[in-house]
Amino acid sequence: MLFLLRMLAMGVHFILAGILGLLIGICRPFNPDNSRLCARLYSIPAQWLLRWNVTIDAQPLLDHQRSCVIVANHQSNYDLYVLGRVVPPRTVTIGKKSLKWVPFFGQLFWLAGNVLLDRGNAIRAKQAMLTTTETLKHKDTSIWVFVEGTRNLGKGLLPFKKGAFQMAIAAGVPIIPVCASTYVNHMQLNRWNSGEIMIRSLPAIPTAGLTQDDLPKLLETCQKQMQECIDAMDAELTQRT
């Protein structure tokens, strides 16, 4: 019964947050800070409705003052609610072009200034990535990327896509990894307190002076650090129970 009530409440919340986000987007279309505001519109009420206990240790991310590429693990559609509270100012994200047609959310996503990639069209996707690189260089805006490219469903990190690292190297901006503990397999939405989640950001990984030849090592280093961080958070949460 509690699960059904929660899903009903979450459905209403999703629509209301979408409407409010649309109003923000219409009032100041494509402002790079719209994403942060909208992420909180979705995240903060959802965490209250779902009764998650979320522990956040994200000072390296929240204290960073310059453009960067933020890379995060991607477990499920709940990531919006989990990670929305730590989206920093002037940060946009990259998503599939098909998101544009999701009622309320898709239009909000577009008006928030996020980057929509047509992954079925290599030329257009490359042009969008080049534009994003220029944004990193000259517009004091950061990019948030779910670096696996798809949801891992809590089964461990999938191989990382290269695009985020190519952009960071081309723009000469640091990479900041953001990790969420493996929550998707442990949610119990039919219980009053439905789970514990940890979010942790890691120190920035500099890219200044690197070339595309350094990309494989950079990608490997980032994935290793993120996997170790996720494993450590999972172990800590296991000890609490």
TrEMBL record:
Molecular function as annotated in GO: 1-acylglycerol-3-phosphate O-acyltransferase activity
Top-level taxon of the source organism: Bacteria
SMART domains: PlsC (SM00563)
Boundaries of every Phospholipid/glycerol acyltransferase domain copy: 68-183
GO cellular component: a single term: plasma membrane
Pathway: Lipid metabolism; Phospholipid metabolism; CDP-diacylglycerol biosynthesis; CDP-diacylglycerol from sn-glycerol 3-phosphate: step 2/3
Pfam families with a match to the protein in the record: Acyltransferase (PF01553)
Enzyme Commission (EC) number: 2.3.1.51
UniProt entry keywords in alphabetical sequence: Acyltransferase, Lipid biosynthesis, Lipid metabolism, Phospholipid biosynthesis, Phospholipid metabolism, Transferase
Reaction equations catalysed: a 1-acyl-sn-glycero-3-phosphate + an acyl-CoA = a 1,2-diacyl-sn-glycero-3-phosphate + CoA
GO BP annotations listed: CDP-diacylglycerol biosynthetic process; phosphatidic acid biosynthetic process
Entry note about domains: The HXXXXD motif is essential for acyltransferase activity and may constitute the binding site for the phosphate moiety of the glycerol-3-phosphate.
NCBIfam families the record matches: AGP_acyltrn
Family recorded in the similarity comment: Belongs to the 1-acyl-sn-glycerol-3-phosphate acyltransferase family.
Protein name, as recorded: 1-acyl-sn-glycerol-3-phosphate acyltransferase
Organism per entry: Pseudomonas leptonychotis
